[in-house]
Structures are given as structure tokens and as C-alpha cells.
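Quick start: read one record
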Amino acid sequence: MKTTPFDFRKSLTGVVLVASLSIGGCGTVLPPMDFKVLDAKATPDELLQPSVDPIDAGTAQPFTPAAFIPVEISQPKADKLFGLSAITGNDTSGSWAKTQNTSQLLVNGKRLVDPEGSITHWSLMSNTGYITYLVRNDRVEETPDKLSHYDLKLLDVRAPGQQPQKIASLATNGFRHLWRFGDDPTPIQADVYSLTSRGVVLMREDNSVITYFEAGKAPVTTALPVGFKATSFGITTDFAYGRHIRVIQHRGVHKLLGFLPSAQEELYDVGFWNMERGELTAIAKDVVVNVDNEQAFKNYINGTAQMVDSASGPLVITVEDTLKKTVARNLATLQKVTLVETPIKQGHGFDSGFEMKRAGGIGEYHKVWVRFSIANGSMSNSQINDLEKWMREKSANIAQVQ
């Protein structure tokens, strides 16, 4: 019996156009309990040696992203029941009246099919003008160890009539994934994987070893610094464009007054790892996490360290410095500005995303926006409509003052 690849669509946010979370009162994997901040100005210096942001240290390297050519990737919406209530046989749901196959792949509003077989999985987003997808390879018999076979194909969707190109192959039983790239017969194993618009990202060893493959290039395998692991959840940017993945490091229990451990709060560093160079571009320091289960932890990290692709490069917005700062960084240009800073540890809730305009079925991405909730100082209940422009103007004003 054939098996299907592990479906990352169930573990990622999917085609997420807006990453959002109000982060005013969330915490660790400990049971929730009443907690009051006794010293709002407490800092975590007594824990580990504080991390240094590579952008501040001058060790990060800028890069020039590829042309920004967003592709709209979607699936048909389920039919309504048209008010039909007749029951036929054992069907009591009215599904016999539905015509939409919601598992189909739509690219720029049109269905995509492959001439050689059914498409089972595809890159969740694309900002390069390309898309990758997996096709079940029924020409290869199931192997003795019960692995099923798939071809990874690359398609340029910028113009009609383009033919897909096979760039890799996958043998899997749904849990064990063996990838082969190009003509190289040597397999690379992955515990989990995620398709990009021009290749694939593989992770193993508790998401601490990452292999990145892009069409036309050799695979690159890198190990994260000790203490860091990649977050395979909540991917909201296209690796092939932005080149970065979010990584986290646990710093320890947050302490108050230098000796009283908090019953809930934990400190993390959230970094952004360049998968081609194998190095950290940026680190958001002293991110306070206060949640009571694993799913809440994932939601919190997704909300407190958001990534959005823009025309000038991947932008990240983070709440750091023990809930006192909201900072924006461009990982391509290495521009860094503070959006909000408050003197007390109160938390900054925000949403971010990009304006999307449909024209003839083609998705066009324009301005990255950030919408602030309360507890954001002078930015409370306001919105930055064009974050790239705002960052340029803020940096120019700082330069004039200096």
C-alpha cells in the first residue's frame, strides 16, 4: 500500500498571509498560576552570558535577494450545500451536491496539473516566480523496506507553457525521508522537510542539523550553534527568497530581584539562521515566554518573532529585551530600528503582514504593515502602513541627529 509524504501543511501555518498574536500575557510549559511582576525593571544578566546580536557586533553579512516575484498559491474553497437537504443512501451530509475538489493546487488562480502523475504536496508559498511540488512516481516499484517514491519538480510559473523540471527524488514511508538531488545517488536523510519555491529544506537531529537544497546548486548541510534548534512550525516566508529560518535557544528561568525564580517565565533567544551561509544573521535577545502548553509556545514564538518577505528582503519584527522593545530588522540589508520602547516590562502586542492585491488572478505584494495593540507606548492602537519606508525614514533621522 502506498504511503504519502509527511504533510507539512498540518504542522505549518500553510499559506499564511498574516501572522498574528497579541502577546500581552502568555508564558512557559508550566501550569498557569497567578504571577505578579515585583520588579518591572529586572534584567536577566544573572542567567547566562547575554547573547550579542550579529548585526550590532558587525559580524552579519548583507545579501542581495532574488527578484521579488510573488506567486499566489491556494486551493479551491469547499462548495456550499446550495440549500439541498435531500438524503441519498447513507449520505447525510449533502456532499453529493459538491463539485469542488479542495485538494487541488491553484497557482495564480488557475489549476496546476503535472503530465506524469498526481501532485501530492507543494511549496506553501513562493516569492521567486517558481514553485516546487511532489509527484507520485508509480514507475518505481515499492521497495522491500516499504518506501514509496516521489519526484520533486520545479516549475517557472511566470509564463504559460513552461515545462516542469525534475530536480530531486524522495523515498519515504511517511516518517523516514531519503532525498537524492540531481544525479547524485547518495541519499540524504531527514526527519522532517519543507519545500521551498526552488528546492527543499531538510531537518534532523531534533532540528539542529539543516540541509538546504536549491535547484542548480549543491546541497549545503550546516549544524546550528550548541543550544539552538530550528522551529519547523509557523513558516511564513519563502526560504528560496529570504534564505532564513527562525531558530530558538532556551536561556533559563527568568529571575526577579536577582534571587527569586519566576513560577512561569522563561527566557529565550530567537535567532535567524542563513541556511546558505550557515550562520546567524540576527538574534532577538531576552524574549520572555509565559505559556502553559506546547501549542501555546509555538503560537507565542510565531507571534513574538514574525517574519514577512518584502521587496527589499525578509523583514523580522520581534518583541525582546524582557518585553520592553519591539524591533524591526531587514535580514538582507541589515537595517535595524526600534519600533517601540517602553521603560517597564509590559509586553507589546502586534500583528504584521503584507498588503495583497489581486490583478487578473495574479497575487501582487506591496507594502508590509504592522498594527499595534495597547501597551505599545506612543504606537498604541496605531499602524505602520509601509514598514520598509518607515525604517528608511527612521534610520535617516537617526543619522541626521548623529
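The radius of gyration is 23 Å.
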